[in-house]
Amino acid sequence: MSGQTLTDRIAAAQYQLTGSDMARAVCKATTHEVMAPKKKHLEYLVSATNTTNVNIPQMADTLFERSTNASWVVVFKALVTTHHICVHGNERFIQYLASRTSLFNLSNFIDKTGSHGYDMSTFIRRYARYLNEKAFAYRQMAFDFTRVKKGAEGVMRTMTTEKLLKGMPVLQTQIDTLLEFDVCIYILIVKPAVSSTELSFY
């Protein structure tokens, strides 16, 4: 699969007709092209989360909608885009994810269209579970473990014993779900030239 498919172009045009540049950017970031989401679309979405008039629920819901696609490529890119915004975007985005009663429902996802589809389906199910746990952890703790201050004066070292006892099982579960999926698959299949810096947000 090289280049945008006709389906990608139609979807982008539909969002353009509705006047939603943000939804169109989500569509552009999650095309059927077997490559990482383009940097310009990720940067646009991250920037959008910092504007006062952005509709965060619409952005998240569009990503959830893209994650229901039958293609592993589209679903994977929807997860990567969501993850990228969680880490680099305004905190309001993950706050919204944490407020939802349901997130990615991909426990039974499978793409039967080719060998990569089978290989990536397992990875996608695990990746979705990690993102769900990440949002759940935020709901429990009211902060993102990956974004808080670290070191001697870090959050985990200065919080009360009661909160630490509450937080440790939550952090352990998030770490366990992170270790369940192999980030190297992203390197081997989607973007062979990916650098360690680009994977640091995991």
Automatic annotation (TrEMBL):
SUPFAM superfamilies: ENTH/VHS domain (SSF48464), GAT-like domain (SSF89009). GO terms for biological process: clathrin coat assembly; clathrin-dependent endocytosis; synaptic vesicle budding from presynaptic endocytic zone membrane. Pfam families: ANTH. Keywords: Cell membrane, Membrane, Phosphoprotein. It is found in: Cell membrane. Residues 14-145 form the ENTH domain. GO terms for cellular component: clathrin-coated pit; clathrin-coated vesicle; extrinsic component of presynaptic endocytic zone membrane; synaptic vesicle. Its main location: membrane. Coiled coil: none annotated. It comes from the Eukaryota. One of its GO terms (molecular function) is phosphatidylinositol-4,5-bisphosphate binding. The keyword Cell membrane applies. Belongs to the PICALM/SNAP91 family. This is Synaptosome associated protein 91b. It comes from Xiphophorus maculatus (Southern platyfish).
